[in-house]
Design a protein that fits this description.
249 residues; TIM Barrel; alpha/beta; 11 helices; three-stranded antiparallel β-sheet; six-stranded parallel β-sheet
Length: 249
């Protein structure tokens, strides 16, 4: 899959950022326990990922049904020592892993639907981006990421689609973000920031997401007389034009 993403980059003007998520679940046909599998990733998979320049980021799903906090911490720190950036599937169904992500300096903690108040404050005071994935909440019938509390505590909130066939099949980011905004009482500015430069920051892309000098001219346009209509219409107002590096795509 990582090789396909690398090949797709040669065919697309978009910037594709691949993440190695070999540590999502231990494969059913793997002969060994969780620790054995995580060691297998560190010894067999990540060196090849690095050698072929397939990804600079490593992720892990920390959950009762996936990988446990202690083994995940050890895995992530070793991946970090290998030169990878770290991100975490955190607090989707149970709390605790969002705090772990912030403690080890993860670029982002993604999901956070189950994050408790004490951990919200801890995450918000770190440099880890809190990524809300409202599509997964809608797809699974789970509560939304506590976006209002994270922002009020001073956190960095990004908003992404989590578009995948298992838990977030919609893929319409603006619809998802506008629904999140309604339930979490977010302003238009907070939502647009979450989908643009704050999301870019979570990926280490600090020269896109704003219409400012020294930023790439990557932007979309909508045919409307009021920018608030983009979210007000909850996805029914469609993008008219897409520009990448100043070129109309």
């Amino acid at each position: 899959m990582l090789r396909i993403i690398k090949d797709a980059q040669t065919k697309s003007p978009a910037t594709l950022i691949a993440t190695c998520l070999a540590a999502h679940l231990k494969p059913k046909d793997f002969d060994g326990n969780n620790e054995d599998y995580l060691n297998y990733i560190l010894i067999e998979i990540l060196p090849k990922v690095k050698e072929e320049n397939l990804a600079k980021r490593v992720d892990i799903f920390i959950e009762k049904t996936a990988f446990q906090p202690d083994e995940s911490r050890e895995f992530l720190l070793k991946a970090k020592e290998m030169g990878f950036e770290i991100t975490v599937h955190a607090d989707q169904f149970t709390s605790g892993s969002g705090r772990l992500a912030a403690e080890i300096g993860a670029k982002s903690a993604d999901h956070l639907e189950a994050t408790i108040d004490d951990d919200i404050d801890f995450i918000a005071k770190s440099e880890t981006v809190a990524t809300a994935l409202p599509g997964a909440s809608l797809g699974l019938g789970e509560k939304f990421t506590p976006a209002r509390k994270l922002l009020d505590a001073g956190g960095i909130l990004a908003i992404a689609s989590d578009w995948n066939p298992g838990s977030a099949p919609m893929g319409n980011l603006i619809t998802q973000a506008s629904i999140l905004a309604t339930y979490e009482k977010l302003t238009t500015a907070e939502v647009l920031a979450g989908m643009t430069f704050r999301s870019a920051h979570a990926l280490g892309l600090n020269n896109i997401g704003k219409l400012e000098e020294n930023f790439k001219a990557n932007f979309v346009t909508f045919r409307t007389d009021n920018f608030q209509n983009i979210l007000y219409n909850q996805g029914s107002l469609k993008m008219e034009n897409l520009y990448i590096n100043g070129n109309k795509i």
